[in-house]
Amino acid sequence: MSVSTRPATSTANPLAPLAPEEIRRTTEILRAERQIDQGLRFVTVTLHEPPKREVLDHGRGDGPTPERAAFVILYDRRHQQTVEAVVSLDRGVVASWEVIDDVQPSVMLEEFFSAEEITRSDPRWQEAMRKRGVTDFSLAMIDPWAAGYDIDDPTGRRLLRPLTFVRSREDDNGYARPVEGLVVLLDMDKMEVIDVRDHGVVPLPSKAGNYAPELMFDGDNRPAFTRLREDVKPLEITQPEGPSFTVDGHEVSWQKWRLRVGYTPREGLVLHQVGYEDRGRLRPVLYRASLSEMYIPYGDPAPTHRIKNVFDEGEYGVGVLLNPLTLGCDCLGEIFYFDVTANDQEGRPVTIPNAICMHEEDHGIAWKHTDFRTEKAEVRRARRLVISCIATVGNYEYGFFWYLYTDGTLQFEVKLTGVLSTGALADGEEPRHGVVVAPGLYGPHHQHFFNVRLDMQVDGDRNSVYEVDAAAVPPGPDNPYGNAWVTKKTPLSRESEARRLIDPLVARVWYVVNPNEVNELGQPTGYKLMPGENVLPLQQEGSQAFARAQFAYKHLWVTRYDPRENYAAGDYPNQHGSPGGLLEYQKADRPLENEDLVVWYSFGAHHVVRPEDWPVMPVTTIGFSLKPVGFFDGNPALDTPRSAACHTGNGQVGHGDGHPAPTPEVAQ
């Protein structure tokens, strides 16, 4: 049976996430030095990452240990102010304290729950519910959607727009019964309802939408099948000698990969200092990799749905919404778990156990060739290291998966599942901006956009980026037979040139190369970003999406490294009406060739709902890959050992006793 282990708390490395005792100490220092009262709320407490140069120098033994510090975002509800503070844990002092004007920090967990109670107690909301035949208000399920940005909203207030659903009992799927047309506006500073707008009664859908076995076969919720499958046999994954990876605190070694697993309350899982050991030398690939933003705009102009355009990271914080993962359910095999620690609004540490899962997977054939003349075959099986976490953001689940492969490839994948945010329909009505999934119930059209920030470090700090397209050679002397094509490499020389779109018709990829390092063939060493499935926003100029989420309107952005530039939509997208982030970062139009670069990749999932997406959605995946291109002198997986189970022609590769044959030496 698989086992799970947890790492010991370790802050020996300057990039290790804050430990619980460090969060406690941060709060104590702030309370002692700034006389913080109950009106000041702790939004996030996270590591204040040291300057990159200090971290790299320290790692090489060329510099002192960087100062250990915490970065804190606070919200002063009484004065409606956002504060950024840096607390030195080494010196025990508040190193900086700055009021940030005209911004709203992310929605806090305590606001999630208080929004529900505030809404339930409002007489206007109660009257709207009675019009729909609902008198037991305890069954109302209220989702606190971020307010977005409207010029009609009161200014200077901290706002939420809850949407209402109705359960038939405590554990019922409330999304089966949306309260269509009812929109509430809350002031979270005063903890009161500002406005209730009822756009007309639409009957609650009558059919349940449950998915738990104990509820599925009950009453009118009976599905097309009448019982669970009985022909599913056990599937066990065992590693009798244990996993191939080792963990020291947050440092991971697997095969030839070396990296550090990190965490922030906003981004969730972060990878630091990803490198590959090649012939005894650790070669860097990425300094830092993280999800920098998520944006989900809905394409339905109805009153209840037009407000649905949310920055799930910048307005909520993915890291505080991570699930405690369960062995054999979320992760299968020989699992290693990392606990993570966030904070509550009093500044106390809150630990999420088993929040990050790490394990190995077999991934089919890595490479194979059969010499048909001799009937001898060589085949190797691929293996990958999986580092993952899952966040529940209201109705949706998002799984975030980093894969590291034995051939030097990295892959990032988002798995989307959970429950639709639904709408109700009058009898006989067909939705124009969605798809019916049950009687009187529809799923609106919507899209999910993600941006991953890749602080590149391919063989060192100085990199360049090329856009690479395939191009047919025009007919003529250079193409006498009409079959010739070439690759065109275009440098992205300045930030103004580095806002690019995918083009699968020319097999477009982007090379990130180190012009100062070459392989044995004289080619610059590099990695290429390979797009996967993608889309652009359909929201036009004048929409909230166009005003606030410009990062999603281009697929690739490149900026010169600046430690203050971390989020594709800016530091504070909550209630912000202008496109911060990448559009602002690139205004300087800095040169990009042979510089310290950050690559930002945006990718989108286009969701036209299907009946099969109800009552809970099958997983769909989207993402991209980073593949070595000239980084190695040949196939880096050539030294993968043979498997005892493999055969070559008429003879066995393995010994008759089941042990693999000795691995031949591979020329390096």
From TrEMBL:
User: Gene3D superfamilies from the entry?
Assistant: 3.10.450.40, Copper amine oxidase, catalytic domain
Record-annotated Copper amine oxidase N2-terminal domain positions: 14-99
- 2',4',5'-topaquinone is carried by which residues? Y396
Cofactor or coenzyme needed: Cu cation; Zn(2+); Mn(2+)
According to the UniProt record, where is the region Disordered?
642-668
Q: How many cofactor units bind, and how?
A: Contains 1 topaquinone per subunit.
Give the EC number(s) under which this enzyme is classified: 1.4.3.-
Write the protein's name: Amine oxidase
What is the organism of origin for this protein? Answer: Pseudonocardia halophobica
